[in-house]
Specification:
Helix content of chain A: over 70%
Strand content of chain A: under 5%
Number of helices of chain A: 8
Shape of chain B: globular
Order of helices and strands of chain B: EEEHEEHEHHHEHEHEEHH
Number of helices of chain B: 9
Distance between the termini of chain A: 54 Å
Number of strands of chain B: 10
Largest interface: A-B, 20 and 29 residues
Largest sheet of chain A: none
Oligomer: heterodimer
Helix content of chain B: 25-40%
Structural class of chain B: alpha/beta
Strand order of the largest sheet of chain B: 6-7-8-3-9-10
Shape of chain A: flat
Number of domains of chain A: 1
Structural class of chain A: mainly alpha
CATH class of chain A: Mainly Alpha
Bound molecules: adenosine-5'-diphosphate, magnesium ion
């Protein structure tokens, strides 16, 4: 078998556009997931039982079922139930954001509880109020545990985002498939989008390394 | 004037009765050593005095404030109670100077200039002026503990609680920390010190209290307690460690 890259040349702009389409909903999903995840994490460390129960049940549900199923339920089942014709973009953001928030909440909770109990005691003994202690003492230290794991979650999300191709959303992955169908050759276009995904993930990893370096003050 | 007054203090963790009917009164400027076997409740007793542990029963008054009264603002009251831990618990992401200025700036809300001036004076007092811009993790254990003492003093407390401040240190660093504590005792600070350093208890303390299995078994002047303990349990304990 021989590769013929010349045939995909006319389709390159079409595929490159997919980068932006993918990034667009990945970024919105990450932000959405981060905000919901932070709230869930606060629920998890709060002293109010129903909030803790809700956050734990939520996490268990979203981590315990396939992402593609969650996407299908939002895209296919919700319109049948409510009559609201949900767009692929909105479904994608909802599925990925809600799913990601479960993982993010767990990352933040674990990061906070990994901070030495003695830090809380030292702050409390100095008369530092709870909110201030969280902001100035606990969270800056928790961030060192949280950010690397959070970066991993973002990388996973970027790769998993290819699942939206199954609901016809024209992301990077879907564009590779479309070009492959047009040319009756799949190898070159799929390899091409594969390289792009890999590049995106590399960039995210480098940003992660850089942030980690900036955070290692005091070690 | 009494700085610490504890009346009929009980503390249980579940079914484990850790402190049983402890009462004690500590005057201004007094240095009291708490000794006793491991697990006898010494740390729990100390931690009840600034309500790091919530007493199960009993009344605790510190510097005239009834801590166990539900209406008391405990967070506010803790400003006046310095505490030094066995494992230092310095804030690793702040420099030595920032460790000392943090609480005065954020809790007492003094000016930056004032907080830094006080912090520098305290560092001088514990002999660590040259470390002001270092991060805690670059210090030795003895240096960390001296910073921790200075940090507690930065809030100008009415009394200081020490929970085995030298137990986590290499032997050659014990003296530098004890020297700082002696200096503090001589300056008139009210101190409650859990320690295994019998030399310190003998030399510096005005009074020794002996805890065993959550009971305050015996108290007295160090010279009397160490040479002629009244209770069997204290005799056994002293035989084992001396
Ligand atoms: N947070 C806690 N939860 C449950 N049990 C505790 C806790 N802290 C201390 N204890 C128990 O209380 C007893 C006394 O502990 P502690 O006050 O640390 O003794 P000491 O300082 O004299 O060694 C021990 O049996 C210990 O297991
Ligand atoms: Mg102890």
């Amino acid at each position: 078998m021989n590769l013929d890259w010349s045939q995909i040349v006319p389709y390159i702009p079409f595929m490159l556009e997919g980068i932006w389409v993918t990034l667009q909903f990945v970024i919105v999903s990450i932000i959405f997931g981060f905000i919901v995840g932070t709230v869930l994490a606060l629920f998890k460390i709060s002293s109010i039982k129903p909030l803790r129960f809700f956050a734990d049940a939520y996490t268990s549900m979203f981590r315990g079922t396939p992402l593609i199923l969650q996407l299908m339920i939002i895209y296919l089942a919700v319109p049948q139930l409510t009559g609201y014709d949900i767009s692929p973009f909105l479904s994608a953001i909802l599925a990925f954001g809600l799913n990601s928030s479960a993982y993010v909440s767990e990352i933040i909770r674990a990061g906070i509880s990994a901070v030495d109990k003695g830090q809380t005691e030292a702050a409390v003994a100095l008369g530092v109020p709870y909110r201030q202690m969280m902001i100035d003492i606990i969270l800056p230290q928790a961030l060192k545990n949280i950010l690397p794991a959070l970066m991993n979650e973002f990388i996973t999300l970027t790769k998993e985002s290819a699942i939206v191709s199954t609901i016809g959303y024209l992301d990077l992955m879907r564009r590779g498939q479309v070009v492959g169908a047009n040319l009756y050759r799949n190898f070159e276009p799929l390899l091409f989008v594969g390289l792009i995904y890999w590049g995106l993930v590399m960039v995210l990893s480098l940003i992660g390394k850089w942030v980690e370096g900036r955070l290692s003050v005091g070690d | 004037m009494s700085v610490i007054n504890v009346e009929h203090l009980y503390k249980s963790f579940g079914k484990n009765d850790v402190l049983k009917d402890i009462s004690i009164n500590i005057k201004q400027g007094e240095v009291v050593s708490v000794i006793g076997p491991s697990g006898s409740g010494k740390s729990t007793f100390l931690r009840c005095i600034n309500l790091l542990e919530q007493p199960t029963e009993g009344k605790i008054t510190v510097a005239g404030v009834a801590l166990t009264d539900p209406k008391t603002n405990v967070t506010k009251a803790r400003e006046k109670i310095g505490m030094v831990f066995q494992h230092f618990h310095l804030f690793p992401h702040l420099t030595v100077l920032e460790n000392l200025t943090y609480a005065p700036l954020k809790v007492k809300r003094v000016s930056k200039a004032e907080a830094e001036e006080k912090a520098l004076a305290l560092l001088e007092r514990v002999g660590l002026s040259d470390k002001k811009d270092s991060y805690p993790n670059s210090l030795s254990g003895g240096q960390k503990q001296r910073v921790a003492i200075a940090r507690a003093l930065s809030m100008e407390p009415d009394l200081m609680l020490f929970d085995e401040p030298t137990s986590a240190l290499d032997p050659e660093m014990v003296k530098e920390v004890l020297d700082v504590m002696k200096d503090l005792a001589q300056s008139g600070m009210t101190m409650l010190v859990v320690t295994h350093e019998m030399g310190f208890a003998r030399e510096v303390a005005d009074r020794v209290i002996f805890l065993d299995q959550g009971l305050l078994i015996e108290e007295g002047k160090p010279e009397e307690f160490f040479s002629a303990p009244k209770s069997e349990r204290a005799k056994d304990f002293l035989d084992k460690i001396l």
